[in-house]
Design a protein that fits this description.
It comes from Christiangramia crocea. The chain is mainly alpha-helical and 416 residues long. Helices cover 69% and strands 0% of the residues. α5 (99-119) crosses α19 and α8 (160-170) packs across α11.
Length: 416
Amino acid sequence: MENKTVIQPTKKESRIDLLDVYRGFAVLGIFVVNIVIMNSTFLNQDEFAQQWTSGIDRISERILQLFFYTKFFPIFSLLFGLGISMQALKLKEKGRLSFSFFARRMFILFLIGVFHIIFIWSGDVLNLYALLGLMVTTLIGRSNRLILFLSFFFLLFPFYDEVMGFFMESLNYDPGSYLNGYDGELVNQIISEGSYLEGIQLRIREYLSNVPMLFSFLAPIALSVFLLGLYLGKNQIYKNLESFISRIGKPLLLAGILSNIYRLVFLFVLPEYDIYSDENLRPYFVKAMVVSDVVMGIFYLWIIGWLWYNSKLKTLLKPLRYAGRMALTNYIMQSFLGLILFSSIGFSLYETMSPFQTLSTAVAIFSVQVIYSKLWLTYFKFGPLEWLWRCLTYKKLLPIRRLQKANLPEVGYEKQ
């Protein structure tokens, strides 16, 4: 049985603001990418994108390619793994560390993800995070060397498509069958003119058709960076972030430069050569691009950390912490606003917005979220979904208003 000792709540002043800034930054980047998919699904995205030829739209597309695509998913994954390890260490200190606690926590997150997929948007990753997060919790007590080895292995292994294909064939799972008969025109009609029930059916079909991509492309990245976050948390780098950021500056700066060089070569040089289309070599080019994007995401965290500790731009970065403290709420809210913007239950803007318009809309909505989050946190300790997740995890109705004293901890990033 679990120890029933009451854990004291985390005090506001004990939070590490920079980690909340990181989470807010990740929420912004994820939405900039997600809104592009909300505006035009993968089924019709390439054809839809060809119509935008203006200078501002080309620049916007380049910005997305170079600075956003596949950069922010690793950031959020790293912070997720870091959060798991920090929470585990805190519980271990109090003699309350148990697998059942994390199993319950991840199961609730999984259910939130399922709700998200069915009723709001099929592009959810929360259920994937829950499954992988539960796996990572089993490695908390393992050696640093093993955790780092697995992190690099899951990132660098190049044959996930083949492995996934084998499993799909063994299970007689045909992802393409779920969207048989669906083309870009029909999807457009369902989203922009169809009923909400038709939208639910489409979202379920889209998710089931994307399972191979989810588990062969996104899952390895998430698992790898979860483990890196777990390693950093176990080694308590959060106790002296300024020193850690200074220490890794030179190697990370070099890695950032090299990753950018490769990204430019991959996007604008390699496509001109036949070697780019070689079926034996292309998987390695793509894998190198994925590694480059992960490195770039980590480089973003470093540069933000350096600016935080060494420049006056800290003042401009501070507002991100409010959105970061309500990351789950803001993530789901972004999907809900996308449903309102693009579907028939709202403004039916599906496949009408240009790259510049989607980029501008994402930044505008996020700016409002920062303001809303600040106002909310003035009166409440947690975001609405963060509070719900916490209550269900601890199996207790926790106070949320700031004037009340909590009986259980605010699970966040803490100084020791």
